[in-house]
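Objective 1b: paired records.
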Amino acid sequence: MGIQDNYNFAPAIGIAGALADSGNHDIRTMVAHEPIKPGQALVRCSAFPSKVRLPHVNQATITLSGAALDASDTLTSIVNGVTVANTFVSTEAAQVIAHEALIEAIPGISAVVTSARVITVTAENDTPLSCTTAVGGGATTVVTVVDGCADAFYGLAVYTGIMHPKPYPGTVIYDKATFVTGGTLTDEVVTFTVNGTALTAVTFTTSHANTMGLLKAMLLSAADIIAVTVDTNTLTIYAPVGRSLTVSAAITGTIATSTITQLTQDPNYGVVQYNAEDSIAVLRKGRLNATSEDAAVVTDTVYMRFKTSGVNAPGGIRTDADTATAVAATGLNFDSAGAAGGIVVLEVNLP
């Protein structure tokens, strides 16, 4: 008989938000300002110091380039839904200063001319910022607006037992499929194939509703299905966390028609989170598992996302600014490598 002479002592990969070890940790109890998922990067609310929120766009830089503004040229900005505009005032510099004053007058907004052709706009009191600016009046001046984030990294959301799961527990997108009969079942035989495996055929028994129940039970017997719901003529079939799902069906009998639609599940299904006003555990010192948006190594700088880009939402972790949608998180380092979309260990070291 063979004898095992080697062992893998590497710890199993954890889930986002779980503590990476039993070492020293500084965990603060705060209040969630908004829904927050475990493993996300957090900032402290300026208006409510006992609360934490996700990073967001709260700064914008308006920059003029090219030809100078001149007579009849206009500047129009829309800042958090408020429109301000002014026309040329003797010199471009005077017009820029006047425009800055109009933005500064918007409640909850501050603005400053940071150089001759640049205005920096900041939203106050944890308010997200939306800012657009355009030139008009025949101007050939070019204006660009770049979103930014003035937030400082405060900590990471820790996975605990007090969060709120949505209907099917998990942390990643499910696959699902819907099966719709062509009408009320009366004498049919239905055979499902799930991920290449044919299930036992189900024959109409007693009534349409009863037969749909039998189909649900048969589907639930498949290893690749975690849940099935029934709504009159429709069966909705869910795969377990992280698994793909391919379903087909053959139906014979009076109503020999049906449709199968493959769907990608709502990404919020199965996402465990803290809701707004929940007590939330925030890691300020120690090591935690988190999901990295891109491939990472331990020498990479950690950035926290403040602006949505594709499927990547604020609070995400990555290795670069991603075209001005993420900022460096001071006090946060990679402590392990990981693939894009995979789990990495982060080390937090904040005072």
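Objective 1b, second protein:
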Amino acid sequence: MKLETERHVCLMVALLMSLMSGTMYAFGAFETELKSHMNWSQTDIQLMGVAMHVGTYLMKPFCGAILDSCGPKVAACVAACLSLVGYGVVSACVAHTTMGSVPLMAAMFFLVSLILIHVVRKHIILTD
């Protein structure tokens, strides 16, 4: 029964990580809604997209070292914490349009892109 439970947990973690790693690819699906809701220009929206890409590509060289030194469990926990903070602030900014600024949102999308998902999802295991 323990093996069955571990498999279900692994499946759920893998699904959540896959959903989060698709943010960069799904950005185009919600950028128009974000643009109209926040009354931002296309340049503002593109700044957030660029921040997301820069965060992803800057982190790639460090992902292997983090995984080697800390292991996949720690890296996944760090990724979850960064995602929670980043998406939480983005959600709060969208819900309260007065507190949402372009630099803050760009910084949060940058933070979300640092989630190590592109490496962690390939190496996640339940036991070290």
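Residues 2-123 form one domain. The helical segments are 2-21, 23-38, 42-70, 72-95, 102-113, 117-123.
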